[in-house]
Specification:
Length: about 550
């Protein structure tokens, strides 16, 4: 690892803007933007993937490796990623700082407590919940109807036991009894606000707009009504500053904010992205999960709120194993058996996501993430199909094993695509009714047939439009394990029923959340959690995180 001050120097960041957190990580002060805001912006390369499978497609590895590869071919490049959540790190996913020669440093710190941003978000969120409940306990001047409170508590742990709780038990001295629950911190609206805020003032204004509950007369109650927005924003005064770390080949990497893409909007912070675009010629960023989740939300939410942030090209990551699974091959055979037929069937999922990228007017590049046991003829088959039938560039990526050198062809293809003339456009206009926005996403991105909005959700949409929120974009919370609202539906289904069961306003973040299917906002642990593989020895060396 290089000292973080050397990374900052290479990034063009003056040392007066660097707040060190030890030798290998730092926060960057926001006032750096005063001196660089008028510089031309670099090209933004957005990394996404095909629909997630248990094998892992290698999207974060590819994002890191592509950054290294762009550096390898002489480009001035920065990386922008989300912060890992401890819930998935200890649960299904494990570490999220890359692997082997496509890694971020210091990876253990990034995967664990890092600079404390996620803890700050949790503290801010739970403080707001405590202030709301205390207001009711102390006389309820705002005349809040307790059962209308929509603001759960949060924690950065996958714990299904806390999804639904009864709080306030034990008598009057311990508050009042009501039903509530917990969400994971990455699903907090405050996390989304942190990721979408332009500066401290914007952060404070957004916090004040959080819809908390309703009065007994049916009027909305916002966080600003409690008079505590300054205090909540103060808890985030350091968390709002982007974190600077490095790739294992020394490129600057901003790792900042951590909203999930299946239950939040799934992208790194606007502040970090804008900062990187002013400091580098090329910026690589990624959205959570597949094109239908992180990419759609980046295009229709992040770019809508920030017209100066526009992607120039999209890299879609695929692997042979994932394509075979989408082609219906049995999981226990995928690692050991060749099958061009399964690959052929599975290519429909890749084709679906390529089509979605083109729908937004952007050039696509396919990164075929190579694993050690991949077959040469199968790799060639996928590359040829992409180029000849889907008319997109495709390159085999070996960044995990070889670092930047193993992604040279991919980097050149991404640069070529990013420098093409694109026609970026969003999926719908602000003026479209909320219900129609939901239906547009479901039909054009997921290829649903019948879109069912349950009465409770329909009523909420009507009330939100009456309250003046009709112009907000929609953030659909759905499973990442298929393009439908049901997990483990492989391939590229068409014409299925897509159900919205609940709608939650995120007025501070500036979008409306539509909950599809049986989506949970607090994950549970699997039978064999990743935590069981993690250890620390007597010298303090951590193992099992990557």
């Amino acid at each position: 690892m290089q000292h973080i001050l050397s990374i900052a120097d290479n990034a063009g960041i003056e040392r007066k803007f660097v707040e060190q957190y030890g030798d290998y990580k730092a926060k960057i002060k926001l006032d750096i933007m005063d001196g660089i805001k008028d510089r031309p912006s670099g090209k933004l390369i957005f990394v996404s993937a095909i629909t997630a499978t248990p094998f892992g497609e290698g999207k974060t590895v590819t994002s890191i490796g592509l950054t290294e590869a762009l550096g390898h071919i002489g480009k001035k490049v920065h990386l922008c990623l989300r912060e890992p959540s401890l819930g998935p790190v200890f649960g299904v996913k494990g570490g999220a700082a890359g692997t082997m020669k496509a890694s971020l440093f210091p990876s253990d710190d990034i995967n664990l407590h890092f600079t404390g941003d996620i803890h700050a978000v949790g503290l801010a969120h739970n403080s707001l919940a405590a202030i709301c409940d205390n207001h009711i306990y102390q006389g309820n001047e705002l005349n809040i109807m307790p059962e209308s409170i929509t603001w759960n508590r949060v924690l950065d742990v996958s714990d299904r036991q806390l999804r639904n709780i009864v709080c306030g038990l034990g008598g009057k001295a311990n508050g009042f009894v009501r039903e509530s629950g917990f969400d994971i911190t990455a699903a907090s609206e405050i996390m989304a606000i942190l990721a979408l805020s332009k500066d401290l003032r914007d952060l404070k204004e957004r916090i004040g707009k959080i819809l908390m509950a309703a009065t007994k007369e049916g009027e909305p109650v916002y966080a600003g009504d409690f008079g505590c927005t300054g205090a909540i924003a103060m808890l985030l005064k350091d968390a709002i500053k982007p974190n600077l770390v490095q790739t294992c080949e020394g490129q600057p990497a901003f790792v900042h904010a951590g909203p999930f893409a299946n239950i939040a909007h799934g992208n790194s912070s606007v502040i970090a992205t804008r900062m990187a675009l002013k400091l580098a010629d090329y910026v690589v960023t990624e959205g959570g999960f597949a094109v239908d989740l992180g990419a759609e939300k980046f295009f229709d939410i992040v770019c809508r709120q920030n017209p100066d942030i526009k992607p120039s090209a999209v890299v879609i990551v695929a692997s042979l194993k994932a394509l075979k699974m989408h082609g219906g091959m049995a999981k226990d055979k995928i690692k050991t058996e060749k099958s061009l037929e399964a690959l052929e069937r599975g290519m429909v999922n890749l084709a679906r996501h390529i089509g979605t990228v083109k729908l937004y007017g952007l050039p696509a590049v396919v990164a075929i993430n190579r694993f050690p046991d991949d077959d040469e003829s199968e790799l060639k088959f996928v590359k040829d199909r992409c180029e000849k039938e889907f008319n997109v560039r495709a390159e085999i990526s070996e960044v995990a094993a070889r670092g930047g050198e193993g992604g040279e062809a991919l980097a050149r293809a991404a640069v070529e695509a990013a420098n093409e003339q694109s026609n970026f456009r969003m999926l719908y206009e602000d003026s479209v009714p909320l219900k129609e926005k939901i239906e547009t996403i479901a039909r054009k991105i997921y290829h649903a047939g019948n879109v069912i909005i349950l009465p409770k959700a329909e009523k909420c949409l009507t009330n939100l439009e009456k309250a003046g929120f009709a112009n907000l974009p929609v953030n659909i919370a759905k499973t990442q394990l298929s393009t439908t609202d049901t997990p483990n539906v492989y391939g590229a289904p068409e014409g299925f029923a897509f159900t919205i069961r609940e709608v939650r306003p995120s007025c501070g973040a500036g979008f409306i959340v539509a909950m599809a299917g049986e989506m949970m906002t607090l994950p549970g642990l699997p039978k064999q959690p990743a935590a069981m593989k993690i250890d620390i020895d007597d010298s303090g060396t951590v193992s099992g995180l990557s």
